[in-house]
## 1
Amino acid sequence: MSTDIFDLVIIGGGPAGMTAAIYAGRAQLRTLMLEGMSTGGQMFNTATIENYPGFGRIDGPGLSQKMESQVNEWGVEIQYGQVIEIKQQPALFELVTLDKQTLNARAVIIAAGSTPKKLKVPGEAEFAGRGVSYCATCDGAFFREQDVAVVGGGDSAIEESLYLTRFVNRVTIIHRRDELRATKHLQERAFADPRIEFLWDSEVEAIEGEQTVKQLQVKNKKTGIVTPLPAAGVFIYVGMQPNTEFLQGLVKLDAWGYIEAGEDTLTSIPGIFAAGDIRTKGLRQIVTAVADGAVAAMAAERYLGERGF
Ligand code: NAP
């Protein structure tokens, strides 16, 4: 167990966590940012970002790298690790990681984001990484000149379908309704793209193949008819699940598992703040995550100041 005490530990290195780190660094708090995989979070897995002001169009890994460089300028320590438990002690939080480290923090910002939801159909787990993907940016180029399917009708499904048309022969978007949820501008681009087709009112019943994915069984919800759809890959974009399992019984969560916290990022526990996609909010975007990061860091600074740190 480490006896070091950080003023602030930030859990998560996406746009919310990295912004909190920049602000905490500038406020000269002794700060550690813990990241699970690579900095950037969901932003890292995004092909093209065209609504983050100041950059026109930028790729997700590129913007992630720029933010990380800025974190490094402010002397914030970055470690890789996954927190599995937070224990509340008098005036201190003990964070236990998967590799059995214990970290001590006077304040904590939770910016652990969310993970893609699973479809939960036969074949999904079996073919993960062998045709089933949740990241077009990571895997799209493996499907050059082939036919692929995308499941979902939100911004992610449509945006990533547009990205996939750079490589693939055809994208079939399978959506459970006859109307998309995605923003109008993305819809118009997808409808105008000759490489994109739609299967409306449809649900994937199974993903099949041998070594890799070969076809999907798709059911039309109106007729009940199940038809095979040949596809070398399937990209699943059916929404996100907040990464709050490790917080059960600690901070208050809403019915969907998001941390109950307002624009002030305050949670049900003083000293723990929630920033970005992980908290209850109306709009989950990089700009709103970044805003949360700044608010949370300033709130943490105030919390520490009031306690004489
Ligand atoms: P989302 O907006 O929650 O959309 C999920 C889509 O998947 C919906 O169309 C939903 O259908 C469908 N779906 C959900 N469960 C399903 C199931 N079990 N089987 C089949 N289909 C299912 O998720 P998202 O697209 O990942 O976006 C998440 C958040 O990030 C949103 O707030 C979004 O605006 C934001 N985002 C923004 C941008 C951007 O601004 N450029 C890009 C990406 C994401 P229904 O429509 O029928 O519910």
## 2
Amino acid sequence: MSVAAADIIIDCVKNKPNALLAFATGNTPLLTYKLLAEKVKEQQIDFSKCFCIGLDEWVGVPPNVKGSCHYDLHEHIFKPLDIKQSQIYLFDGLSADILSECKKMNELVREHGGVDCLLAGIGVNGHIGFNEPGVDPSLEAHDQLLHPTTLASGQNYFKEVTKLEKGLTLGLSQAMNAKKFLIVANGKSKADIIKKTVQGEVTNEVPASYIQMCENGIVIIDKEAASELTK
Ligand code: F6R
């Protein structure tokens, strides 16, 4: 799963050096990021012209706190790939003006002609970024009240109990319009939601299920996450 995802990101940058890349945090893509950094060094791929955005961010969590998308993306991908600050734009979870924060992100995505490659994990509730069950799939970047399962699993990323309530996220329309929309999932705990995502009804109750409508959508899973598929 991680090798395949890393290779797709590399191909994207090889074909378009100034690609706009969107990255998720969470546990699932960690090995992808490690392999990506190794492969980029080995193959001497030039990432100096690409632009990187974060898929989402926790509202109210400072960027220097481990567990914030800022911190984790810098640690796991931007530092290893030597991506400069001028090549990065992340949601500011501390912004007092959430609307303008989302507007800035939307303008940036538009200026780049859309996202070239978006790498997402999937929540056990089917969320993509912080597009939670019930989300309007036509939305671009927006803030979202977090679902109870996201609030609970979110604590695992932090060293201390952290107040979580809302997230800032790219919208599903931006993911669906990405030239490559990748979802990675591994482990038994994702088997049920992967079945709903790829074999179930396309519904905003399972936000990830919209990937069925994307010609450029790719779901990359391991055997455990695939264990409930019947087709
Ligand atoms: C994080 C994000 C989330 C996670 C999802 C899965 O930036 O966008 O949607 O991708 O919650 O998290 P893990 O990979 O930790 O199971």
